[in-house]
Design goal:
The chain is an alpha/beta fold. The protein has 12 helices and 12 strands. The radius of gyration is 22 Å and the shape is globular. The termini are far apart. It binds pyridoxal-5'-phosphate. Pyridoxal-5'-phosphate binds next to helix 3.
């Protein structure tokens, strides 16, 4: 059985949609994904728990998809749990570990349990940590520097014998900063050498999977979340990698699906689509493991912006090992992010202010604020996020439209180079 039927053209791009540069919010489902979802709805619609032929076919599809996700991550299929997306995967990792700890407290009780995360995580990590805090856990939110980068020394300082787990993202969804995972791994190993045990480590890899090689075993990561719709798969499906031996308390109780950790009849169409998306990502990464295509597009976009639009400020580091290839976050002083997004949308260019998952809220971005940016810089920033499907002509065209739109808005606000206008 194949998840990506032959004959499905995978790079068809309906030009009439416009120039889509909001791929960190969501991506266009690939035609191979759509075909896999369609087949699962139309042909393999049995319940994988049923023992008849249709059930067995659905079970095969489930197993096949699990293998595809596992292969992309370089882990065993039994270590993959399907979820309704990364929000659920993150919640399952955090509450699953916390509840497991509560019900299997170590014999030598070390006092109040402690957990660590960073100030720039996605809300689906931050909110569960805040909930743990309300429930009596000690929680440390590690700061980041002006470039959004975590100093691994801060992690070393925060670790305590009672630290049960930590959660750090791989790539930040607003700035594209790659977190220093190797340095974190090294700090956790040092801790292990000193105390004979170390906290478990969860990584939200939503913005990294499919863009960078993501092999949790190489870095000693214990749990890792990913989401289908950020990698040309369907919405409402994701997965949590749980290293063999790590115990999680289930959040959903019922029929005992997914090894008893996540009950509920499996979303076979979504899961089939996720499997196809992982196969696609594996093929693309094999052809371009460094993300050179994306990096070139991103660098071209920044060069054109910097050359043609005065006063712009780029956020996040530029070194290739510290910045994901597909995200560019820029402030356009004298404008407002929301206004820019609307003007650009009218001209057929789609971008985001901050993170799309919460950009409808009026609050300034918690990520850019944690980086110490001024309110003006935060309020005038937009995020461009690219995909393998973007072409250089689109980037050139988007930069030209952007130049006109920024000039138009600045004309209205009376902004002049060298002057900051707090709007
Ligand atoms: C870093 C990160 N984590 C988690 C999520 C949530 O993913 P999902 O939409 O699958 O719940 C997102 C979505 O933007 C994200 O960017």
């Amino acid at each position: 059985m194949t998840l990506t039927p032959a004959g499905v053209e995978s790079l068809v791009r309906p030009a009439e949609i416009g120039i889509y540069l909001d791929n960190s919010a969501t991506t266009r489902p690939d035609p191979t994904v759509i075909e896999a979802v369609r087949r699962a709805l139309e042909v393999e619609y049995g319940n994988p728990s049923s023992v008849h032929r249709l059930g067995t076919a659905a079970r095969r599809l489930l197993d096949e998809s699990r293998r595809a996700v596992a292969e992309l991550l370089g882990v065993a299929p039994e270590e993959i749990i399907f979820t309704s997306g990364a929000t659920e995967a993150n919640n399952l990792a955090i509450f699953g570990l916390a509840r497991q700890w509560r019900s299997h407290r170590p014999p030598k009780d070390l006092g109040r349990p402690h957990a660590i995360t960073t100030a720039v995580e996605h809300p689906s990590v931050l909110e569960p940590f805040r909930r743990l805090q309300e429930e009596g856990w000690e929680v440390t939110f590690l700061p980041v520097n002006r470039h959004g980068q975590l100093d691994p020394e801060h992690l070393s300082d925060a670790l305590r014998p009672e630290t049960v787990f930590i959660s750090t993202m791989w790539v930040n969804n607003e700035t594209g900063v790659i977190m220093p995972l190797s340095a974190i791994y090294e700090r956790l190993n040092r801790w292990q050498e000193r105390f004979g045990r170390r906290p478990l480590w969860h990584v939200d890899a939503v913005q990294a999977v499919g863009k960078l090689p993501t092999r949790p075993r190489d870095l000693g990561i214990d749990l890792l979340s990913l989401s289908g719709h950020k990698m040309h798969g369907p919405k409402g499906v994701g997965a949590l990698y749980v290293r063999r031996g790590v115990q999680l308390s289930p959040m959903l109780l019922g029929g005992g699906q997914e090894g008893g950790v996540r009950s509920g009849t499996e979303n076979i169409p979504g899961i089939a689509g996720l499997g196809a998306a992982c196969q696609l990502a594996a093929r693309r990464l094999a052809g371009d493991p460094e993300g050179l295509h994306l990096r070139k597009l991103r660098d071209t976009l920044w060069r054109l912006i910097e050359e043609r639009i005065p006063g712009v400020i780029r956020h996040g580091p530029t070194a290739p090992d510290m910045s994901a290839p597909h995200i560019l976050n820029v402030s356009f002083p004298g404008t407002k992010g929301e206004v820019l997004v609307r003007y650009l949308s009218e001209r057929g260019v789609f971008v985001a202010t901050g993170s799309a998952c919460h950009s409808r809220r009026p609050e300034p971005s918690h990520v850019l604020t944690a980086m110490g940016l001024s309110l003006d810089e935060v309020g005038s920033s937009i995020r461009f996020s690219l995909s393998w499907e973007n072409a250089e002509e689109e980037i050139v065209q988007a930069a030209a439209i952007l130049k006109e739109v920024v000039a138009e808005i600045r004309e209205l606000t009376g902004w002049k180079p060298g002057r900051s206008t707090d709007l």
